[in-house]
Amino acid sequence: MSRPRTPLSERFWTRVDFEGGNGCWLWTGRISEKGYGRVWVRDEGTKTILVRAHRWIYEFCIGPISEGMQIDHLCCTPACVNPDHLEAVTPRENTIRGRGPGLLRQRQRAHIAIADAARTLISSGYSAKSRRALENSVKMLL
Ligand SMILES: [Zn+2]
Prior knowledge:
The chain has helices at about 10, 55-60, 90-95, 110-125, 130-140; strands at about 15, 25, 40-45, 45-50, 70-75, 85-90.
């Protein structure tokens, strides 16, 4: 007897602490030696692979990460999975850039809306209505 698995796009939020300070969303699941959140992802239903949680959320909320690009934490907090704190950069930029706080406030309203929608999603038992609300709040980032 197999029951349908809750997709990662819904399970993910149960592992996030939205009250991480500085607007950070801290990953509360598995953490790598370097401090990055890690999450198991089912690949096309065949195998399961371990990926960095911040890369997963970046692709979920913002879009595919081009080959060779790195995801920089603007907040310098490796365990943070707030898409607003993440930016795709070349490895060179990632090394030389100064990390200013200026970008953090830009889309604050959107990430508050996502946090609220994700909480509602979980507390409602993943109702269709709250799922749509989450999808709509994610679109505010686009
Ligand atoms: Zn952060």
